[in-house]
Amino acid sequence: MEHLEIERKFLVKSDGYKQKATSQTRIVQGFLNTDPDRTVRVRIKGDKGFLTVKGASNESGTTRFEWETEISSSEATNLIDLCEAGILEKMRFEVPFGNHLFEVDEFLGENKGLVLAEIELKHEEERFEKPEWLGEEVTGQVQYYNSQLSLKPFNKW
Q1: Contacts of residue 81, Cβ cutoff 8 Å, sequence gap at least 6
Q2: From which residue to which does any coiled coil extend (predicted)?
Q3: I need a labelling partner for 146 at 20 to 30 A (CA). Which of 18, 56, 58, 63 fits?
């Protein structure tokens, strides 16, 4: 299937990633639909806007349909005004490690204190090096999906 996203998600146990980060970007995002079978996300990342549709995850939680298109930041701002309650804000750090790129998200607001790292892979069995700051794997644990964090923030668990 075209447009497949294959990724694994981890808790982060220290801030060691910050020294290795090659970029840091503020992200604001909301959801027009939080149904896990068809999530529709609006994101402002830096000065760019994006509209993303994600399908249901497979059994392991690593693979799902993802379609994304860039839109103007003003369009994204207007769409965020239409989103469900629970707008997320986070700082994203891009951290190269080995032959891969980790995206580390430090959540703000009601999700402050939660730090997650994601790595996109070419296939589900792909091996990768794990940095010392990488903690417990939470791939497939629905409460860590951004759409669910918008509904039930980390600080209310």
Answers
A1: none
A2: none
A3: 18
H helices present in the chain, as ranges: 17-20, 73-80, 146-151
Provide the CB-side half-sphere exposure for 13 (13 A, CA).
9
Residue 43: which of 105, 88, 102 has the closest Cα? 88
Place of tokens 């959801």: 31
Do 67 and 60 meet the contact criterion of CB atoms below 8 Å apart?
no
Phi, psi of 27 (to 5 degrees): -125, 135
Q: Taking the complete model, does pTM exceed 0.85, yes or no?
A: yes
The C-alpha atoms of residue 67 and residue 86 are separated, in whole angstroms, by 22
The alpha carbon of 142 is separated from its chain's Cα centroid by a whole number of angstroms, namely 12
Q: Token pair for residue 144?
A: 């860590």
**Residue from 30, 19, 13, 152 nearest 90 by CA:** 30
Residue 2: the pLDDT is: 75
3-class secondary structure, 144: helix
Over the chain (157 residues), the average pLDDT of each successive run of 10 is 90 98 98 96 97 96 97 98 97 98 98 98 97 98 96 96
